[in-house]
Design a protein that fits this description.
six-stranded mixed beta sheet, 257 residues, single chain, alpha/beta
Length: 257
Amino acid sequence: MKKIAYSLLLLAGVAIQSTTFAAGDTIRFGVDATYPPFEFKEADGTIAGFEVDLGNAICEKMGKECVWVSTNFDGLIPSLRVGKIDAIFSSLGISEKRKKVVDFSDRTWSGFSSMVSLTSKKLIPTAESLKGKTIGVQQGTMQEDFAKKKLVPKGIRVQSYQTQDQVYADLLNGRIDASLQDMTQAQVNFIEGGNHGDFSNHKVVDKLLPADSAIAIRKGDAETAKLINDGIKAIHADDTYITIQRKYFGELDLYNK
């Protein structure tokens, strides 16, 4: 796994909000801020997005302050395991593979994975349709794990990228035939937000692609898990969750299946 020295992490974009709280009053959330609208950087470098607003609301309910630590997606779990961050809030699906190395909070939202490709190519997410094609995925994601285990053995090439934006860039310039990612992110950010109505967004269902996402917590850290789960319950109890959801997704319900 990719290892990043903490000092380099700080130089590369650690986003620290107000530091008026003592260290014990903060929760350091690791985040890959390249996945809008779930997490992204504003023009001034501030980290924002649906999950960032949820995290800040959870921290407020807990009487804590969120500290957002920006790093590459494939560096998040290693950073959590060595104690550089306290939790990960970054569109992390609750996969069986990840459950072996981290604990998860209660569900924070739910959404299927999908395959995006030019409608004119008439591709569908089956081995027969994709044989000989190249699929783009972001490094460290469950979509990458799925593609390497399920697609490569069937003659489908898989190209990994550091960020989802890089995947979309090569999809647009034709270097890859399709991409795999979260379905809501693809629809809201790439197809609608990017005005790419000539692309189709096909749902992909597999046991390696669980729909539920949550906050990852260091294995055995029951104290942080309880704090975060209490905060999740609190933002549902007073409609804070719904208010934040509507800000980014209108009437789309990301929580109730």
